[in-house]
Design a protein that fits this description.
Elements (H helix, E strand, L loop, with lengths): L3 H5 L5 H13 L10 H13 L3 H16 L18 H9 L6 H15 L14
Helix pairs in contact: 2-3, 2-4, 4-5, 4-6
């Protein structure tokens, strides 16, 4: 019999792991409003490989941070269309783990960048103009 605490642990429950990974993905700027079937498949691959959610979230934030820190005169990058975009950064973090506290650092730095950037388009499925 499975304990109730292990059912809620995203590292032992694929549904919770996928939900957490996909929510972190769609909450980022320049990503789709909804995760696709291929995004769900990518998150399941990470779960099956035993990749910690902290590594996944760090990869998502690090890639986003790198995109936002590009020179202002650089050509704009296209929107991110797939969770697979982050796979190389996940592999980078597996090969060279981030130091303790790095995830929190990225959260703060990215929040500061996003809060100070001019809003181009609000990421929402609802519209105020109806």
């Amino acid at each position: 019999m499975t304990s109730s605490s292990s059912l809620l642990d995203p590292h032992s429950n694929p549904a919770h792991y996928l939900a957490a990974a996909l929510t972190a993905y769609v909450d980022l700027p320049d990503t789709p409003l909804r995760a696709s079937v291929s995004d769900q498949r990518q998150a399941r691959i990470w779960f099956d490989r035993g990749i910690a959610l902290e590594v996944v979230e760090t990869a998502l934030l690090l890639a986003c941070f790198r995109r936002k820190m590009r020179p202002a005169d650089a050509a704009p990058l296209p929107r991110i269309r797939s969770l697979a975009y982050f796979q190389p950064v996940v592999e980078e973090l597996l090969a060279h783990p981030a130091p303790s506290g790095y995830l929190q650092y990225l959260r703060l730095k990215l929040r500061g960048i996003l809060d100070s950037a001019p809003a181009k388009v609000q990421k929402s499925t609802f519209s105020d103009d109806r």
